[in-house]
């Protein structure tokens, strides 16, 4: 069979199949009525058969906006692109605030933050091709942080898929490993059910990101799609052109068939959340009531709905178990809880006889489980079975594993304990345990306070002093965003979030570059709360340009940059190991000047500066970012009238501030999680480079580790695995 004839046969077969699929949904009477109406109106046969309103100006972006609105979405984060323009316009018209950023990753990070703080879905929309590829890091971070994020991505027209269209790539394959759910919408009528299903999937079970691909021909009005396809009412000359015209018309007609179904449901689908059984609660209550030295480790997953953060905080306080909080759970118990511990966690875990991992995971953050005493009973609660049992049987063993929602499990545990008088009596045995933990914590705090008064070898501002001053002036409703390595690691032990959902860090992925996105999402959700980004000077380079976004959208934040002109967390190992600082050195950039150029205030902090002046400058910056600022200059430039581009924010004096803190280098984080095992080389050979790059850091072989959670060598862990876990075993 010649190629032309084969093409002709396949073409006719595809056309007949498409028409048949449509006709099979109709009764014979419906077909006759549609053909009759088409003849009367003079419309083409295909258009009449599919009953398309060719004059309608409605578009698929309206359906996207409507279903998002029905799901309670208030913000859409984006970087604009022609593929997704209908979505942005429709969302603005329906009352969903559209916040555009300077990088697609920032948009997804912002949606991630909004999802965490609202305990609901967060939504971002980006254009096709490079728009999607730019989101990969943020998507992976949302996956590992278990954040329910919906990413809407544009795509080339369906008819041009795989034919070399602009920015046409295989986006589904790209994101499939990053998302719980991914789908491509091929018809306008499928937009609503696909997005509803995606949102329900994102929030069910273990939360995570989902992706919906929306081609141009699904989003734009019929007339626009028809025009771009090159169709006209003039008769086509020749058989091939006539068949091609009929095929394209049929495809477009099917795309828009039944597009605006009035009965199509928009409301959210049911979300599936795993719950603990009564037997599991009974067993856990028994373990807790008989424990002498229990510990509760609360991880990020505990903050997932349906249990609200305030209820969870009350529950944990009422249980009375000494608790360590990590990730999104930081701040759950406020800054002054009697049962919350922050220091010496490794020692406490070695002494405990019962450890409840409430959303905490035995990964690198718990030294893969090696910090758990083999004599203690370990109970792990997690929605995700893989995370719940990570490294189980290698370094640790569980007495009980509950695959269920963490918050619901703790609430039911408290209810069971409260109903048992013998369990209440058991709490008295924990007083001595609590007192011992508090005493150790006070000793560590005293040592850290002394470190804060030390002068750095290079004479610059001591970061411990700076962060302790910040902690003193921090308003109670401040939301803290962590984006950095060494500076943020120091802040984690110094700056205390004041309440639930007031600390945002990337989570287990440990990525940099989340700062501006997290802050934008936080300020959008809580516009009247101060939002403070704790930036390392390396990390700020990923998203500092989005200071412009805060200014344009009148969402003021404070960016505090710890500027030590170094990738200090990397240099801390590289220099003593290899006697080289290559790739680790930065410069003391004028970040306050960058902030000023982008429309923010710029403040420079450097020695000499007294404590009172330091507090005043920090307090002033935080006060300026409370509330929303109406930037009339930007508004006038946008609409030419001095209006505020559709928002209702008043000018209350709020303004973003970039604080450039020129800090010195300390040995506070020696022995921390960032450190790798020291090599066997003679460290004295490294002295020249070490003194030049890290002048305040003493010889690493003699430096006593600061109080950090994880100072075990990861190589020791690998050796233990090699010696025991991977020995040949007989399988019976």
UniProtKB/TrEMBL annotation:
<dbReference type="Pfam" id="PF00205">
    <property type="entry name" value="TPP_enzyme_M"/>
</dbReference>
<keyword id="KW-0479">Metal-binding</keyword>
<dbReference type="InterPro" id="IPR012000">
    <property type="entry name" value="Thiamin_PyroP_enz_cen_dom"/>
</dbReference>
<dbReference type="GO" id="GO:0046872">
    <property type="term" value="F:metal ion binding"/>
</dbReference>
<feature type="domain" description="Thiamine pyrophosphate enzyme TPP-binding">
    <location>
        <begin position="483"/>
        <end position="624"/>
    </location>
</feature>
<dbReference type="InterPro" id="IPR045229">
    <property type="entry name" value="TPP_enz"/>
</dbReference>
<feature type="domain" description="Thiamine pyrophosphate enzyme central">
    <location>
        <begin position="281"/>
        <end position="413"/>
    </location>
</feature>
<protein>
    <recommendedName>
        <fullName>2-hydroxyacyl-CoA lyase 2</fullName>
    </recommendedName>
</protein>
<comment type="similarity">
    <text>Belongs to the TPP enzyme family.</text>
</comment>
<dbReference type="InterPro" id="IPR011766">
    <property type="entry name" value="TPP_enzyme_TPP-bd"/>
</dbReference>
<dbReference type="InterPro" id="IPR012001">
    <property type="entry name" value="Thiamin_PyroP_enz_TPP-bd_dom"/>
</dbReference>
<dbReference type="InterPro" id="IPR029061">
    <property type="entry name" value="THDP-binding"/>
</dbReference>
<dbReference type="Pfam" id="PF02776">
    <property type="entry name" value="TPP_enzyme_N"/>
</dbReference>
<feature type="domain" description="Thiamine pyrophosphate enzyme N-terminal TPP-binding">
    <location>
        <begin position="59"/>
        <end position="173"/>
    </location>
</feature>
<feature type="region of interest" description="Disordered">
    <location>
        <begin position="629"/>
        <end position="655"/>
    </location>
</feature>
<dbReference type="InterPro" id="IPR029035">
    <property type="entry name" value="DHS-like_NAD/FAD-binding_dom"/>
</dbReference>
<dbReference type="Pfam" id="PF02775">
    <property type="entry name" value="TPP_enzyme_C"/>
</dbReference>
<keyword id="KW-0786">Thiamine pyrophosphate</keyword>
<dbReference type="InterPro" id="IPR000399">
    <property type="entry name" value="TPP-bd_CS"/>
</dbReference>
């Amino acid at each position: 069979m010649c190629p032309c004839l084969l093409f002709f046969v396949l073409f006719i077969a595809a056309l007949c199949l498409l028409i048949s699929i449509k006709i099979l949904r109709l009764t014979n009477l419906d077909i006759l009525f549609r053909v009759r109406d088409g003849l009367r109106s003079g419309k083409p046969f295909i258009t009449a058969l599919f009953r398309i309103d060719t004059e309608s100006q409605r578009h698929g972006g309206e359906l996207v906006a409507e279903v998002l609105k029905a799901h309670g979405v208030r913000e859409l984060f984006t970087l604009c692109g022609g593929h997704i323009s209908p979505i942005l316009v429709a969302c603005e018209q329906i009352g969903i605030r559209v916040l555009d950023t300077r990088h697609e990753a920032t948009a997804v990070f912002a949606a991630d933050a909004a999802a965490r703080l609202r305990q609901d879905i967060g939504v971002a929309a980006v254009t096709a091709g490079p728009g999607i590829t730019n989101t990969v890091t943020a998507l992976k971070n949302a996956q590992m942080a278990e954040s329910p994020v919906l990413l809407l991505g544009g795509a080339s027209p369906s008819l041009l898929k795989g034919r070399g269209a602009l920015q046409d790539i295989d986006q589904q394959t790209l994101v499939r490993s990053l998302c719980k759910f991914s789908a491509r919408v091929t018809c306008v009528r499928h937009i609503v059910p696909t997005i509803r299903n995606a949102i329900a999937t994102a929030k069910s079970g273990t939360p995570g990101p989902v992706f919906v691909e929306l081609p141009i021909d699904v989003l734009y009005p019929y007339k626009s799609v028809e025009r771009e396809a090159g169709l006209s009412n003039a008769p086509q000359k020749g058989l091939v052109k006539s068949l091609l015209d009929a095929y394209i018309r049929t495809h477009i007609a099917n795309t828009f068939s039944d597009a605006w179904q009035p009965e199509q449901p928009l409301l959210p689908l049911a979300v599936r959340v795993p719950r603990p059984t009564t037997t599991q609660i009974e067993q856990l209550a028994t373990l807790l009531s008989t424990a002498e030295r229990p510990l509760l480790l609360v991880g990020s997953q505990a903050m997932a709905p349906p249990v609200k953060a305030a209820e969870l905080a009350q529950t944990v306080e009422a249980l009375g178990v000494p608790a360590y909080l990590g990730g999104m759970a930081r701040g759950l118990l406020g800054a002054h809880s009697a049962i919350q511990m922050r220091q010496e966690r490794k020692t406490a875990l070695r002494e405990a006889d019962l450890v409840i991992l409430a959303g905490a995971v035995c990964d690198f953050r718990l030294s893969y489980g090696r910090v758990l005493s083999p004599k203690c009973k370990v109970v792990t609660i997690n929605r995700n079975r893989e995370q719940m049992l990570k490294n189980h049987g290698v370094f640790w063993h569980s007495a009980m594993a509950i695959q269920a929602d963490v918050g619901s499990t703790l609430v039911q545990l408290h209810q069971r304990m409260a109903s048992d008088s013998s369990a209440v009596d058991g709490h008295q045995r924990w007083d001595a345990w609590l007192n011992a933990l508090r005493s150790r914590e006070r000793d560590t705090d005293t040592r850290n306070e002394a470190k804060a008064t030390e002068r750095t070898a290079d004479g610059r501002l001591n970061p411990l002093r700076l962060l302790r001053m910040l902690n003193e002036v921090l308003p109670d409703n401040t939301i803290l965003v962590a984006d950095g390595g060494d500076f943020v690691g120091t802040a984690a032990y110094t700056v205390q979030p004041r309440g639930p959902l007031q600390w945002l860090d990337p989570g287990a992925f440990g990525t940099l570059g989340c700062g501006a996105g997290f802050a934008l999402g936080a300020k959008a959700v809580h516009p009247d709360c101060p939002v403070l980004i704790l930036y390392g000077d390396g990390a700020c380079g990923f998203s500092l340009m989005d200071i412009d976004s805060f200014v344009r959208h009148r969402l003021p934040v404070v960016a505090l940059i710890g500027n030590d002109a170094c990738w200090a967390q990397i240099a801390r190992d590289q220099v003593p190991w290899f006697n080289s600082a290559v790739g680790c050195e930065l410069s003391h950039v004028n970040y306050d000047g960058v902030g000023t150029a982008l429309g923010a205030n710029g403040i420079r902090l450097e020695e000499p500066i007294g404590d009172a002046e330091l507090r005043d400058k920090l307090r002033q910056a935080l006060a300026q970012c409370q509330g929303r600022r109406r930037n009339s200059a930007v508004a006038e430039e946008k609409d030419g009238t001095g209006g505020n581009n559709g928002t209702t924010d008043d000018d209350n004096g709020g303004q973003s501030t970039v604080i450039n803190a020129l800090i010195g280098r300390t040995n506070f984080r020696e022995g921390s999680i960032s450190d790798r095992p020291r090599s066997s080389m003679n460290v004295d050979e490294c002295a020249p480079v070490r003194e030049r790059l890290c002048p305040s850091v003493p010889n690493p072989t003699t430096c006593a580790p600061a109080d950090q959670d994880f100072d075990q060598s990861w190589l020791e862990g690998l050796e233990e695995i090699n010696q025991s876990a991977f020995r040949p075993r007989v399988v019976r």
